[in-house]
Amino acid sequence: MNIAVIGTGYVGLVAGACLAETGNAVICADLDEGKISRLKRNEIPIFEPGLDAIVERNQADGRLVFTTDVEAAIADAEVVFIAVGTPPDEDGSADLSHVLAVADAVGRSITRETVVVTKSTVPVGTAPLVKKAVARHARFPFHIVSNPEFLKEGAAVEDFLKPDRVVLGVESEFATTVMGELYAPFVRTGRPVIYMDIASAEMTKYAANGMLATRISFMNEIAALCEVTGADVDEVRRGLGSDTRIGPSFLFPGPGYGGSCFPKDVKALVRTGAQSGVPLEILSSVDSSNERQKRRLGEKVRRALLSHVIHEQGQDKSLSDSDLGNSENKHLQGVRVAVWGLSFKPGTDDMREAPALVLIEQLLGWGATVCAHDPAAMEEARRRIGDCGGKICYAETGYDALAGADALVIVTDWNEYRHPDFNRLKATLKRPIVVDGRNLYDPKKMSNVGITYYSIGRQHNGAQEKTA
Description:
- The chain is an alpha/beta fold and 468 residues long.
- The protein has 3 domains: 2-196, NAD(P)-binding Rossmann-like Domain (Rossmann fold, 3-Layer(aba) Sandwich); 206-286, Orthogonal Bundle (N-(1-d-carboxylethyl)-l-norvaline Dehydrogenase, domain 2), CATH 1.10.1040; 294-454, Rossmann fold.
- It is 43% helix and 13% strand.
- The protein is built from 17 helices and 14 strands.
- The strands form 3 sheets. Strands 3-2-1-4-5-6 form a 6-stranded parallel β-sheet, sandwiched between helices. It has a 6-stranded parallel β-sheet with strand order 11-10-9-12-13-14.
- Helix 5 (97-109) packs parallel to helix 6 (126-135), helix 11 crosses helix 12 and helix 12 packs across helix 13 (355-365).
- The longest helix is centred in the middle third of the chain and has 32 residues, at 198-229.
- The chain is elongated, with a radius of gyration of 25 Å.
């Protein structure tokens, strides 16, 4: 089947490469000449395990082609995927200008009966706008389809090749037949292809991300409550997850969700609700809760450092809220903090809405310096943050980041951070303080090693300070 994929961002590139992998002739088009030139040289602009091999193999075999000529890519296609960005406007709503521009190009360029598939995440009601834009110029029949993506960054290739389900919003038998044939190789193990009306398909994507974001924020708030009541969020999580009505997924507390989907989609869904006269109060609170959670990790770091500074000065007192006022910031001037993890999750170099960005901003604002490490996102961090006038350095290894640091903060749960040499970690740090935003370690083990350890929703191995 001849396929055009317009947009070579995260979704478009993965979709195009994986569709070529099953024997289709795929042209991926993008107006970014630099990106297309790199892709032609098999230089992948995103970090996604397994994607480079698929792109290289299918380019070599002639099934995958990259171009900047959008209209030429569309001309001979039987199926056109629209996979361009839908960034949030200032009010949180999705910006559809790129989607509609592609739809306009589709109308001008198709030369046969064509299936036009919206792969971009778009709000309910977008399909009629796409249809109108295509129809403005189209001289051949066309069929609109909504095919939301459910790819997890870091596992996107596997998710596309072996999906949990394929959701297709269709309005004609022709489109149903074509899309069923296209996706047949990916669902041979019996995974469902779910056909529905287009509006429901558009809503399904947002509803899924809204539900997952809600679970994360719910557990983060329960974790905050655990800290001040003496409960252990890990035990609570096990108790919740064993309930078959709830299940264990997305119940791990952390520094807040980030990435390109959850923050944007929650805001867009809230905005759609407001425009429709249906206030989505739960999701609005989820968004607010997540923004607070991103700042809680930094406050935990500050409290941990101030507690040690006060102790070292021989002041025998508990840390109160007044100790966290601006008058105490002088104690953090010159403090050095090691940060492990910059991407919003492991398996990707994506730093969009990453909790690490908020943490670093807080630390620098309090007068601290930062030395960071991430297995994949170092170049992205340099591009986004720079060195802030020498206040940030980037270490070659996680251990290098520890040298002379007054504390270590773990932000992203990369596998290589899960089992460090704790004796080496302690010996390299200036002060043996670890603030773990991902609950990677056993508090008792850390205490035995002599490391003062703070985590999320658990009592630290001394007197847990109030962080809620």
